[in-house]
Amino acid sequence: MQIVRKSLFVLSFLFCLLSLTSVSAFGADTQPLRVGVSKLDITPANLTNLNAMGGSFQDVHDPIFARVLVLDNGVNTAAIVALDLIEIGDTMQIRQRIQHEIGIPVEHILITASHDHNAPRAGSVTPGALAHGGGSESVAFTNALYDKILDALKRAKASLQPVRFGLGTGTADVNVNRDEYTPQGWKL
User: Fold this and answer.
1) Residues of the chain with pLDDT > 90: what percent?
2) Residue 49: how many other CB atoms lie within 10 Å
């Protein structure tokens, strides 16, 4: 599981870096890399009919958030949006809205959910997926969420500042999810 998470993070990061690469990268003037971030509470005020796993949410134990990273190199802009949700579904509608309202191209936007089983789902069900669509409460939550994602992206873009990029490796065994690495290998 840790290897999968690390691989997804690296792939997401490489996606953004590749999105920022200009076609004439060799011999071109290098532009400074700028990054902006924001974090916004997306906890629904009304939990009615938002549990995609069945049953009802009774109360909020911890808030859930949208975390946004915007990267800009003076030529291209890219964004990663991470949501504390069980799933986000088809993101084309919100990515088109982001392109229209903020100017980040659809193909430079990655929106993902943490797959938190104690949070709602959002967006329309991706064609061919096995997910269950929600009712009117889910649609209302999705619309409010899309507004919050746009707000978080605007904040992140407004906070762009120069950064330097480096790469390193290491381990941090501070959290395990069901699986544990032992001298004999992975065990449940």
Assistant:
1) 47
2) 16
